[in-house]
Amino acid sequence: MTRIRRGYIARRRRIKKRLFVSSFRGGLSKRTRSITQQERRALASSHRDRDRQKINFRRLWITRINSVIREGWVSYSYSYSRLIHDLYKSELLLNRKILAQIAIANKNCLYLISNESIKEVNWLEGICRSNLNGVPRRMNSGRVKMNKKSSQKKYESTQSIKTF
Hints:
The protein is mostly helical. The protein has one domain. Helices cover 70% and strands 2% of the residues. The protein is built from six helices and two strands; from the N terminus they run αααααββα. It has helices spanning 9-20, 32-73, 80-89, 96-105, 107-130, 148-163, and strands at residues 137-138, 144-145. A two-stranded antiparallel ribbon has the order 1-2. β1 and β2 form a beta hairpin. α1 runs parallel beside α2. The longest helix has 42 residues, at 32-73. The radius of gyration is 31 Å and the shape is rod-shaped. One of its GO terms (biological process) is translation. Keywords: Chloroplast, Plastid, Ribonucleoprotein, Ribosomal protein, RNA-binding, rRNA-binding. GO terms for molecular function: rRNA binding; structural constituent of ribosome. This is Large ribosomal subunit protein bL20c.
């Protein structure tokens, strides 16, 4: 019997894999079985390292911000966590990447941002303390418990609606 040549599909698949690992050294770029193993490993590593890269950059930005804060540029006995807390309370939505760039490029600007957030948070906390009478508060059970005055007003308003 004459020899039958196989189709081109498997060859085309192997050539694609060879192109992927063509820069690898030694037999890792020549043997078909090693090529498939190395391709799998490379793709898994790249997927894992993309996540690690995000984590590492975030750590770098946090370190840069913290170092500038602790140098004394911002405020005495002020920390990174306090700065982020104040920024969220004052609704200044600056991400850590931008804050790190500001901290490196212009420390005075970070000083102004932090002082502005401190002033605004102190002002907001003063308002919140004065308006606690009519605001419902949460208890440990998770149910909302109203203060006596506000619950009586609510009851009176429902009674007046029913009479009409």
